């Protein structure tokens, strides 16, 4: 998937749910649509005019302005398999690799080394992630998105 401007939060949420989502903050909408088509990605957009054009690849018009509901819509309509394995960097969609605590030493504060056992590093931005309470909270959110997406859309979700 490729999310266009105003959908940065949605891109983050979808990455948390294990999805490969690029985000383009600015630029010519048609150029962005072409890139999505070229890379074989579904374009996620709030631009209704762009979404109705037929001269580029697959597009999903995002209905809600709320990231949580946007995420549910995408998961439901594209029938995505939600998982919280965290294989994508939330910030930039880079692939994350597990690294040893020895390697993590230079990146994380000492108290983290004492409590966390698994560390991951993004190949793009070199951000280091680890399992901690915030990850548990995110896993719960991701699980609830997967669960909720199976139910019918709420009125909130359709609000423009
Ligand atoms: Zn990254």
Written description of the protein model:
There is one protein chain. With 160 residues, the chain is of the alpha/beta class. It is globular, with a radius of gyration of 17 Å. The protein is 41% helix and 13% strand. Strand 6 (119-122) and strand 7 (128-130) form a beta hairpin. The protein folds into two domains: 2-83 and 134-153; 96-130, no CATH class. Bound molecules: zinc ion. Zinc ion (ZN) binds next to loops.
Describe this structure in a few short sentences.
41% of the residues lie in helices and 13% in strands.
What is the strand tally?
Answer: 7
Helix/strand order: EHEHEHEHEHHEEHH
Attached small molecules: zinc ion
Unreliable spans: none
Q: How does the helix and strand content classify structurally?
A: alpha/beta
Query: What coarse outline follows from CA principal-axis ratios?
Result: globular
